[in-house]
Amino acid sequence: MLSLQRKLEESIHIFPSDDLDPNMTVAELFKDGSIIVKVIDIENGKVRLGFNAPDCLDIAREELL
After folding, report:
1. Cα–Cα separations (whole angstroms), residue 56 to 40, 46, 48, 63
2. For 1, 37, 41, 64, which has the most beta carbons within 10 A of its beta carbon?
């Protein structure tokens, strides 16, 4: 599980990895399960989120893109 912390108005991007086959169908992409986003903690105006997603997807904080 990937854990990221965000403040109000900050974003997280989920997108296909560069090595993902462009012909892959949505059904193939999610054959092992869906993307799960879980709220882990909320403290001092920040939320900590946990992500479980297929390995062929990248998850990044907006400021890193």
Report:
1. 23, 28, 23, 21
2. 37
Q: Which CATH superfamily is domain 2-64 in?
A: Translational regulator CsrA (2.60.40.4380)
Report the pLDDT value the prediction gives residue 28, as an integer from 0 to 100. 92
Mean pLDDT along residues 21-39: 92
DSSP the chain: -EEEEEETT--EEEEE-TTS-TT--HHHHTTT---EEEEEEEETTEEEEEEE--TTEEEEEGGG-
User: Taking the model in full, what pTM does it have?
Assistant: 0.81
